[in-house]
Write a structure and sequence with these properties.
mainly alpha; Arc Repressor Mutant, subunit A; 2 domains; globular; DNA-binding; TetR/AcrR family transcriptional regulator; Homeodomain-like_sf; HTH_TetR; DNA binding
């Protein structure tokens, strides 16, 4: 068991190193400015190792989102249904999960994907996986207390409000650093407004 756990940790570290190298090169040179060989050189691995984890550089770039950090089955949904509603639970999850570093990374990935359809496919897939995870967690926690379509509509509304900020189609400034995200800022004010509106129809 210990050996298996150590092996899994090494695999995850390798995957992260390759993904971070790919993302760093994409930011520095643009998606068209490097090839897989540059990624493995930067990360210190072989081309064969890269192929064990990713099919192309676009997939590696999108994986720098670090979905495993969002999708850990930790305490995000360990709230008593008696004390919370599905909406308040997803609000806690969103506010805990979307740190400034993750918000900026999402923003950068979406910006990079605008000009690169191949990358957009993988980034969209990663965002969909995050949304599906939140939906599964909410529906599992509250089960038949609400109809199935309720969870689908709720998750769609929440993520639908966040994505326009990340792709900059709606003008809301992101916090500059981790200290600022704890204080009053445009993004927190926007999220307050989003959930205030949603509470009118979701509670």
């Amino acid at each position: 068991m210990a050996e298996s756990s150590l092996r899994d940790k090494k695999k995850e570290a390798t995957r992260k190193a390759l993904a971070e190298a790919a993302f760093g090169l994409a930011v520095e040179r643009g998606v068209d400015g490097f090839v897989v060989e540059d990624i493995v050189t930067e990360a210190g691995y072989s081309r064969r190792t890269f192929a064990n984890y990713f099919s192309c550089k676009e997939e590696a770039i999108a994986n720098s989102l670090g979905l495993d950090e969002y999708l850990q089955p930790g305490d995000q949904f360990e709230f008593s249904p008696q004390d919370h509603t599905p909406l308040s639970t997803i609000e806690i999850f969103i506010r805990r999960s979307f740190t400034i570093n993750k918000l900026k990374r999402l923003n950068q990935l979406i910006s990079l994907s605008r000009e690169h359809p191949a990358l957009r496919l993988y980034v969209t897939g990663a965002l969909k996986e995050m949304q599906d995870f939140a939906g599964r967690g909410i529906s599992k926690e509250y089960g038949s207390d609400y109809p199935p379509e309720y969870y689908h509509i709720l998750i769609g509304a929440v993520f639908g409000a966040i994505l326009p900020v990340l792709d900059e189609s709606f003008d809301v400034n992101l916090p500059e650093d981790e200290e600022q995200i704890e204080k009053s800022n445009e993004f927190n004010q926007y999220m307050d407004t989003v959930f205030a509106h949603l509470r009118k129809g979701f509670n």
